[in-house]
Amino acid sequence: MPTTSSELSTPQPSVSIVVPVRNEADNIAPLIAEIGAALDGRWAYEIIYVNDGSTDATGERLAAIMAQRDNLRQLRHARSGGQSAAVRSGVRAARGAIVATLDGDGQNNPAFLPDLISAVEKGAGRVGLAAGQRVGRKDTGFKKFQSRVANGVRNSILKDGTRDTGCGLKAFRREVFLMMPYFDGLHRFLPALVRREGYDIAYVDVIDRPRHSGVSNYGFFDRLWIGIMDLAGVWWLIRRKKPTPGVTEVNA
């Protein structure tokens, strides 16, 4: 039976950190320690790891740390559903009004989480998303070229004003994310879809770094070629969007 918020012993968090992972056992403990160092004493928060069908010791490493840290939760997919599915599972389970995400491989530095979360808070309801924008990327030259092409094509078609949608460091209002139409690859199109709903976007420069251990589990075809059909679909959604009418309740 799924765990409900009433069964959890931790106080109601204002912020939920969602980390999608697949076969990242050696990166679990260092990243959780860094998240704690960045957020302890600043917000009431929870960390939700979404174990996306891992076949290594990821689940066991998380379980061991959960015994020591009562604000850590683990969700498990019986089989891998991909990064977008993992993020969605985490956001749906989140108890915080603001959700922040980062990749589980250690390339996203948790030290930037406070800036992202604060940008959403300071937006006073106008900012639906704070998006990390990577500088000094540590990927291979081919990956960087691939991202430049994908971001350039996307921005020329969707006009989302975002130079880097692939950065896992993001913060957003949970209710705004749940308004989005779900599809595989959603996380790469959040800026365009958030703008579609009439919200502003804040941008935060973040410094990329090499992954701590292991190799990428979400590969080339996930990032580029499959995204072509997603791009066409998001373009269609934006074109079909009508202004949301103002609504007032009429009392007798």
TrEMBL record:
The UniProt record lists the keyword Ion transport: no
Pfam families per UniProt: Glycos_transf_2
Keyword terms, alphabetized: Cell membrane, Glycosyltransferase, Lipopolysaccharide biosynthesis, Membrane, Transferase, Transmembrane, Transmembrane helix
InterPro entries named in the record: Glyco_trans_2-like, Glycosyltransferase_2, Nucleotide-diphossugar_trans
The Glycosyltransferase 2-like domain, residue ranges: 16-177
Name the UniProt record assigns to this protein: Glycosyltransferase family 2 protein
